[in-house]
Amino acid sequence: MRPSVWAVLTVALLAGFGCERPVPGAREREVAMRAIPNTLSFPRSTITQLSAGTDAAEITLVAPATADEVAAWYRQFLQLNEWQLMSDTKGRDGTMVLHATKDGRPLWITVHPNTGGPETTYTLVGAVVEADSVP
After folding, report:
1. Which residue in 45, 68, 71, 78 has the fewest CB atoms around it within 10 Å?
2. What is the dihedral of CA 16, 108, 78, 96, to 10 degrees?
3. φ and ψ at 54, to 5 degrees?
4. How much is the pLDDT for 114?
5. How far apart are CA 67 and CA 111, in angstroms?
């Protein structure tokens, strides 16, 4: 079974108490759980940063794989979990951006190839989409 972002986040938070990195607060964790629900992280990824506002969250991770492997894994994950892939682009620098939606929730996955190393940095960005209060 693959670890979810939340399982990885929990481990990172517990491990983070011994590091100098800032530990995300309860508000950031709550927004992240609402903005990016049920999204898995690439196997053996490490969370390097979590930031959240009132209705959106961004999680930055590092994976021990190539950018193409990470992007291919997410394409398969999205398809298997009934996300609709809205766009899939690759820039000249090799950065790939996947945009998907599920049940009205947006998800952006940006995969940045690292130069000079075997790891890949990627981000997951999601937003909290509330029902419109106007009929």
Report:
1. 68
2. -100
3. -85, -25
4. 85
5. 6
pLDDT digits (tens, 9 = 90+) for 75-114: 999 999 999 999 999 999 999 999 999 988 999 999 999 8
pLDDT band at residue 131 using 50, 70 and 90 as cut-offs? low
Rounded CA-CA distance 36/23 in Å is: 18
Domain range 5-127, its CATH number among 3.30.200, 3.40.50, 1.10.8, 3.30.310: 3.30.310
Burial label, 41 (beta-carbon count in 10 A; 0-12, 13-18, 19+) = buried
Residue spans of the domains in the chain: they are 5-127
Q: Are 52 and 32 in contact (CB under 8 A)?
A: yes
If DSSP codes are grouped into helix, strand and coil, which group holds residue 34? Answer: helix
CA 133 to chain centroid: 28
